[in-house]
Amino acid sequence: MTFDQLSALYHQPLFDLISQSRAVHLEHWRGAEVQRCSLLSIKTGGCSEDCAYCAQSAHYSTGVEREELLSLENILAAAKRARSQGATRFCMGAAWRGVRDGSEKFERVLGIVREVSRLGMEVCVTLGEIGPVEARKLKAAGVTAYNHNIDTSPEFYPEIVSTHTFQDRLDTIAAVQKSGMSVCCGGIIGMGESEADRLRMLEVLSNFDPSPESVPINCLMAMPGTPLADQPPVDIFELVRLIAATRIALPKARVRLAAGRTRISREGQALCFFAGANSIFYGNKLLTAKNPAADVDVALLRELGLHVESETISPRPVATAL
């Protein structure tokens, strides 16, 4: 969709917008199902990038300690626990600029992916920048989807990050698409950007070919010690409008209500689900930010008449090499 189309859509009366997005949602999805994803930080802190929102950046004093890559045993235990609690996707994030073929850390990640993929869940990783070779090897190891958010509009991006460019993000996404992995790509709102920046972000996402399989919409968790520590919470109606516009622009994508749910009321989350969000992260922590407790999420979904998607992918033999 074009920016002008998205702007006209976004700025119509709220009830008209969410009525339209609800109709689109029900056309493409089971309206009562919500996917629960589990997210584990497998390598925390010490990142060389200067993303202004991130507590894991080595550029800022946030109290987040640098940790080494978790052991395979600890990661498998977390994945099995997530599966037993109803997760159909297990996501692993590492605070790196990127990974390169032939490095020790990349080989360790490939081994971890092979083992996790045997558990019958979708496997998603976010490892920073990768190229075509790394993408092919991750795909062969069993990665279902690669997360690499564009964060915001191309115009606002330099205000948030200086150590890499918006085009760097697009290059990684192109490598992921070429490999056959699904793309999980969204953004963060509440960083000081305008509503026009949010729509430009959505314009870029809606013109990916192929379209992203899932679109996380994160509300900034203002982390002490980062340049964005004093940003106010996002207005709930602005969030609902963006969720609705995303659902219409990307009807076949999962729209994931991601970081920031601890600052959204139950009623606000309900509006987001009605407007088209159909996936959440669950668990007490998302990388370094707080998240609603799993039992709180279960109670909310039950009260809304929603239920957790229970389908899993079948375990399969995993290639050990290309």
**Total strand count, please?**
12
* Cα radius of gyration in angstroms: 18 Å
* Derived structural class: alpha/beta
Morphology: globular
SSE map:
Layout (H helix, E strand, L loop, with lengths): L2 H8 L3 H15 L4 E11 L28 H13 L4 E6 L9 H14 L4 E5 L5 H10 L3 E3 L9 H4 L5 H14 L2 E3 L2 E3 L5 H12 L7 E6 L16 H14 L4 E4 L8 H10 L3 E4 L2 E2 L2 E2 L3 H10 L3 E2 L14
Parallel strand pairs: 1-2, 1-9, 1-12, 2-3, 3-4, 4-5, 6-7, 7-8, 8-9
Antiparallel strand pairs: 10-11
Helix pairs in contact: 1-8, 2-9, 3-4, 4-5, 5-7, 8-9, 9-10
Summarize this structure as a short list of keywords or feature phrases.
322 residues, alpha/beta, TIM Barrel, two-stranded antiparallel sheet, 12 strands, disordered C terminus
How would you sum up this structure, described in words?
The chain is built from eleven helices and twelve strands. It is an alpha/beta fold. The chain has a single domain (3-303), classed as Aldolase class I (TIM Barrel). Strands 1, 2, 3, 4, 5, 6, 7, 8, 9 and 12 form a ten-stranded parallel β-sheet that branches. A two-stranded antiparallel sheet has the order 10-11. The protein starts with a helix and ends in a 14-residue tail after the last strand. Mean pLDDT is 89; it is low at 311-322.
Brief summary:
With 322 residues, the chain is an alpha/beta fold. The chain has helices at residues 3-10, 14-28, 72-84, 104-117, 132-141, 157-160, 166-179, 195-206, 236-249, 266-275, 294-303, and strands at residues 33-43, 89-94, 122-126, 145-147, 182-184, 187-189, 214-219, 254-257, 279-282, 285-286, 289-290, 307-308. It contains eleven helices and twelve strands.
